[in-house]
TrEMBL record:
It comes from the Bacteria. Residues 225-234 have a biased composition (Basic residues). Residues 4-179 form the Pvc16 N-terminal domain. Pfam families: Pvc16_N (PF14065). Residues 207-216 have a biased composition (Gly residues). Residues 184-234 are annotated as: Disordered. This is Pvc16 N-terminal domain-containing protein.
């Protein structure tokens, strides 16, 4: 799921005009060594915190159907996680970085959720919203200054980006659907036609007669039907 969120953010930023202007979108850790190797304008979307949103944990499950409409698996409900990113812009001059960061901010604050056509893999299969919240971080997430200290780099203007995405539940394959009747092995004997004593019960609709089906008549041969109240016996 994490790499699918990364791909959705990459597509979102690319369609905002960064791709046509030659700006690269990466997900590397912006360490001092990494920054020294950068030569082209770059937007870095660094994931540094992952936490489950326990308030959205559900119960029950869903069913997975095949092309014929049969249930082939049962899936536990998805669990939601909050992914926190540190978004920075890298260019030759601070003015260019600020202009680039402003373009990214304008794109993110106008996006409440990743568009469906930008979702891939399990995110596309689930069909659930992937929320995007720019300009802040979670209450439990580390502060930006702590992140820069851990990276060993100098403090730099950055955007806090939170994405809430579902992690698909576990699927358990179900037994295949019943397509044949129940085979009953009776006492071995030879029928008049020379066949054995195995017979197969056929499933028919309720009320429809069947030679040996559950939907066939339950009256025993040779026994008259029970009279209904009020009827006279001939």
């Amino acid at each position: 799921m994490i790499h699918e969120v990364d791909e959705g953010l990459r597509r979102l930023l690319a369609e905002s005009g960064l791709e046509t202007s030659g700006v690269e979108v990466v997900f590397d850790a912006p360490t001092s060594d990494w920054a020294a190797r950068r030569s082209a304008p770059t937007v870095c979307v660094f994931l540094y915190d992952i936490r489950e949103d326990h308030t959205r944990r559900g119960s029950g499950g869903g069913e997975v159907y095949d092309a014929d409409g049969f249930v082939v698996a049962r899936r536990t409900p998805p669990r939601w996680f909050e992914l926190t990113y540190l978004v920075t812009a890298w260019a030759g001059r601070p003015q260019d970085e600020h202009r680039l960061l402003s373009q990214v901010l304008s794109c993110l604050v106008n996006t409440d959720a990743l568009p469906p056509h930008m979702l891939t893999g399990t995110l596309a299969e689930l069909g659930l919203l992937v929320d995007v919240d720019a300009g802040g971080t979670g209450t439990d997430a580390p502060a930006a200054s702590d992140v820069w200290s851990a990276l060993g780099g100098d403090l730099k203007p950055s955007l806090g980006l939170r994405v809430k995405a579902p992690l698909a539940g576990v699927s358990r394959v179900t037994a295949p659907p019943v397509t044949e009747g129940l085979a009953v092995n009776s006492v071995p004997r030879t029928a008049p036609d020379g066949t054995g004593g195995t017979r197969r019960l056929r499933y028919t609709g309720l009320g429809e007669p069947g030679p040996e089906g559950f939907g066939g008549s339950r009256e025993r041969p040779g026994v008259p039907a029970r009279r209904r109240r009020g009827e006279r016996q001939p």
